[in-house]
Amino acid sequence: AEYPEAITYLLEQYDKYEAEQLRLSDIISGFIDPNETDDVAPTATHIGSELGEDDLADEDEDEDEDEDGDGDDADDDGDGGPDPEVAREKFGELRAQYEVTRLSIQKNGRAHEDTQAAIALLADVFRQFRLMPKQFDRLVNNMREMMERVRVQERIIMKLCVEQAKMPKKTFVAAFTNNECETAWFEYQKQAGKAWSPRLVEMDEEVLRSIGKLQQIEEETGLSIAQIKDINRRMSIGEAKA
């Protein structure tokens, strides 16, 4: 629930079910009772089963075949699948709380007390969903792709500043860390009167372009670069423990 795109993706999947483009059992296997502490089945907050891209593609082909079939997909609740009425209620709760959270982020910012409370409530709803393995694999893969985009731009900035402008790596790391989307650190170093300052001036356009791309990632995800890194780190820890 910390990653807004995860909620958006799940709601889009449910919309496809409503449009009869997916079966409900392609999305979820059921729900967790929030009052049942002994229920430890994988939920929407767990790491996926690490299906490869080929596996995901194969499952997509299976879905297409199901959609083209002549009624093989019986009601999900007819063969022990998720109850459509319960699903409609749960997805409705998720959508409503997502909207409350999104509006609070827009109005108050992510760090605001009201927003944090809304995020906590959203997480409570989100973790009740038992996602099918391929669904939370996609969520994890999407987050990884976002992290890789961050790393690419960070590498470009470091290469320009350290390798080409000859800025000491320790100085660069101290200035850049937690300021990835800020330009003040770069402007300061350009005017610092150091040996690398004139070279940084020459790199101005390229560095600012990469900083702009990092800013775009923050806008797309609704997360700061630090939060993206933290979520990615916790996903890696979860995988290591799995």
From TrEMBL:
Annotated Acidic residues bias: 51-82
MF terms (GO), sorted A to Z: DNA binding; sigma factor activity
Residues making up the signal peptide according to the UniProt record: none
Region annotation (Disordered) ranges: 31-86
InterPro entries registered for this protein in UniProt: RNA_pol_sigma_70_non-ess (IPR007631), RNA_pol_sigma_r2 (IPR013325)
Domain RNA polymerase sigma factor 70 non-essential: 3-218
BP GO annotations: DNA-templated transcription initiation
Matching Pfam families: Sigma70_ner
Alphabetized Gene3D superfamilies for the sequence: RNA Polymerase Primary Sigma Factor (1.10.601.10)
SUPFAM superfamilies: Sigma2 domain of RNA polymerase sigma factors
Protein name: RNA polymerase sigma-70 factor
Species this chain originates from: Aeromonas bestiarum
Source taxonomy: Bacteria, Pseudomonadati, Pseudomonadota, Gammaproteobacteria, Aeromonadales
